[in-house]
Amino acid sequence: MNVNQSVPPVPSFGQPQPVYPGYHQSSYGGQSGSTAPTIPYGAYNGPVSGYQQTPPQGMSRAPPSSGAPPTSTAQAPCGQAAYGQFGQGDVQNGPSSTVQMQRLPGSQPFGSPLAPVGNQPAVLQPYGPPPTSAQVTAQLSGMQISGAVAPAPPSSGLGYGPPTSLASASGSFPNSGLYGSYPQGQAPPLSQAQGHPGIQTPQRSAPSQASGFTPPASGGPRLPSMTGPLLPGQSFGGPSVSQPNHVSSPPPQALPPGTQMTGPLGPLPPMHSPQQPGYQPQQNGSFGPTRGPQPNYGSPYPAAPTFGSQSGPQPLPPKRLDPDAIPSPIQVIEDDRNNRGTEPFVTGVRGQVPPLVTTNFLVKDQGNASPRYIRCTSYNIPCTSDMAKQAQVPLAAVIKPLARLPPEEASPYVVDHGESGPLRCNRCKAYMCPFMQFIEGGRRFQCCFCSCINDVPPQYFQHLDHTGKRVDAYDRPELSLGSYEFLATVDYCKNSKFPSPPAFIFMIDVSYNAIRTGLVRLLCEELKSLLDFLPSLLDQIPEMFADTRETETVFVPVIQAGMEALKAAECAGKLFLFHTSLPIAEAPGKLKNRDDRKLINTDKEKTLFQPQTGAYQTLAKECVAQGCCVDLFLFPNQYVDVATLSVVPQLTGGSVYKYACFQVENDQERFLSDLRRDVQKVVGFDAVMRVRTSTGIRAVDFFGAFYMSNTTDVELAGLDGDKTVTVEFKHDDRLNEESGALLQCALLYTSCAGQRRLRIHNLALNCCTQLADLYRNCETDTLINYMAKFAYRGVLNSPVKAVRDTLITQCAQILACYRKNCASPSSAGQLILPECMKLLPVYLNCVLKSDVLQPGAEITTDDRAYVRQLVTSMDVAETNVFFYPRLLPLTKSPIESTTEPPAVRASEERLSNGDMYLLENGLNLFLWVGASVQQGVVQSLFSVSSFSQITSGLSVLPVLDNPLSKKVRGLIDSLRAQRSRYMKLIVVKQEDKLEMLFKHFLVEDKSLSGGASYVDFLCHMHKEIRQLLS
Ligand SMILES: [Zn+2]
After folding, report:
1. For 485-494, how does the pLDDT look when each residue is reduced to its tens digit (9 = 90+)?
2. How far does residue 449's CA lie from ligand 1's centre (Å)?
3. Near ion ligand 1, which residues have CB within 5 Å?
4. How far is the CA of 423 from the centre of ligand 1 (A)?
5. Could you tell me the domains of the chain?
6. pLDDT at 824
7. In this structure, what is the dihedral angle of CA atoms 974, 976, 980, 982, given to the nearest 10 degrees?
8. Does this model's pTM top 0.85?
């Protein structure tokens, strides 16, 4: 029963954690214990919805077939419907128990260790400095701008490759499946030390990801209990725990902080009475013509914005709103860094909004999962579904279960309960966590999720202290931390058998194009250094196929073969598939070229995002059943139908990489870097994830790269440390302010070393009866992450315009609800934005004009499908920079400065032709050179004597021994290291042809494809809000 006692490699929990040596929280979780006994147990409201009890039957997997690695053409039968059950019956829920549960009458909050809400002033204010009531007042005529803009949330993200030009070619390929299974007990070869792949993030060297793959240092002696000073935020119950860096909200009557702006929209309509019904809440999930007539918005923007004209006869060139007077992402990011980047974020307080993803901060786990694992759209959930509908703020969590951590933060501790396995609630199967309430002297505990009363098994018994808390609470990760792991017992394994270590299989396209471009030779060379066995075969492949004329390729049979090989080896694993062309050869999964840009802006546009045949989905299901994750590396010279080819990677938790018009000399660094990183990634295999919630809310929708065969279990053939699963919640019932709402994410997976583990993340949120509390505790970056994923999935089934309109409507409703219910009465001509959402318009506009929702002429169908697929599993930091790229001036800061230069807003207006800028969005990296850059600078960086001699489109800077060259190259390296994919550099000269490409990323400006400028969009949003309010 002791934590970590039987398994040597498991670190002892008692070990002081790297970050904060020992802690002793006398008040943590305890205080409510004293009340718990008096008010017995919670009400049992019937079976928890969502939980389905399944008999502990093993999963039905096809028996290992004798399939051999070489390409087989047989189409696999697809009868693995049984996999889903597996997750429920014996996996996620463990062995079905027969233990009886008790339900006591009387309803009563289960008394989680959380402080009653009363103690938690409804003042938690998300970000920022003092209650800045940032106001931006811009009067239409006269355009007076007053007030300063206060800080708001930030962003970060990814992109896609440069437009690909299509060459004509037809591909084909016999395929040689290289099959390398890792030696027993070893993680995939390349990773030095299993589980500790050399993560290439500079500042985060070690793969702190302990993710169970490599236990953090082996267990030292166990400390009896951790002692230490009470940390900030640690006391749960104390009266008004003030949140570090949070500001108290103003007195009730005071105007909640918000950004106000008097609209430039013409004559102000009279204010209407507050009771005005206003607008109709819109069903969250439906796309469609929910909004009223919309003057021109959504379709390409007219040259002069026409919105606003509705209220007055003045379609004259409207005066421009001063861009400096509208909320600036740069300012918000900067303010958050200054205000919240200095102190660690301590997770002991329920409902705390974490610092922005763009802020560097350390996390101390004191009972809730780190924001690196879970971020929410709001940390304060409306108590009722009516309130939630009124506000239209989606309630969602972006979860990255295996997130990498910086080296300063401890990886989750691993808990071993021996043969009895993890302790769980008998009814809802939630795992033991800090919010479970021990009662009756410690003999029983009440489940914080479903209120069921459970017996404490004798071996787990412990006495309670005077506050009702177990005296060993701080010796046990599962009683004191937000995140931890359990070693799984054999009951959590397929067929009741511990898994074999996963295998990696490389499957290389050796068709004409692949050979001609040098890809095969390059790849084989690289693999030799990555795998030191199989060298001879790798030497032979390029020779064997050197003279191939084969241009037709197959795809489905290749994956099929790899999967069969894993099946035969009875293990999970990953296929690395290298492919060049549309699979047109006669074989299962054969595709046609159906690229048709004429479908854009028609009702059939959605077909461009849908797979052209069901064969891929069928195959993907089989792969998931086998725990076979597929990573796809594409090297297309023309249309390859990414929408179809990416189905298998998408459903198996894999990744897709695309290198259009691949040329060894220009692209090898990018490809090899991506491959190395991918091979070394920490991956959990054959995984099932379940998100449980406390009574009243329920997970209803999921976004990401995975497969679901029922409504609750997220099945992942593989899950790496970069992938997120986004979960949306809806109300089932009324929530309680006092008890708040709880989430528990449980991920069952097989580590690279073949160990079966459960990773648990817990998060407690506040609940509110006042809308203002909701708006004060939102996180716009997470909201945008969710909204982008929602929209990107929507385009599969709805016209793109309808999807855009839905987003706009929802955003307007969110802001109108705030205006109506939370802001003080003011002229309708003022645009008032909630402090935490003041960047919502600018970021939403970036999503609306992204390539998926509003493609430019140079964007290919494959690019759109590719980006759509990538965004689906991005985390919040990635979507942030992807949608609003970072633009860094290079010569403004002192040459000796080693920190990143402060970013400027992504607008052409911010570019000085005497400077150079780096722009990155996580996928793309540009170096823009102004036409008037000093000659000395040009010489130092490019080794040429004048601007005109700089090669446009250059992708590598010369290595020169001078401070500027070193600085810029160092900065580029640093930016690359921060992202999960290698960003190829493109040098763009001012006024050069390539500049168009670069300008596409200046997202505050009007785009060539018709996307609105930030200023125009803000005006439009203001108009929408006014319409809703009138
Ligand atoms: Zn329960």
Report:
1. 999 999 999 8
2. 5
3. 425, 427-428, 430, 447, 449-450, 452
4. 11
5. 414-481 (2.30.30.380), 503-596+606-680 (3.40.50.410), 885-1002 (3.40.20.10)
6. 82
7. -160
8. no
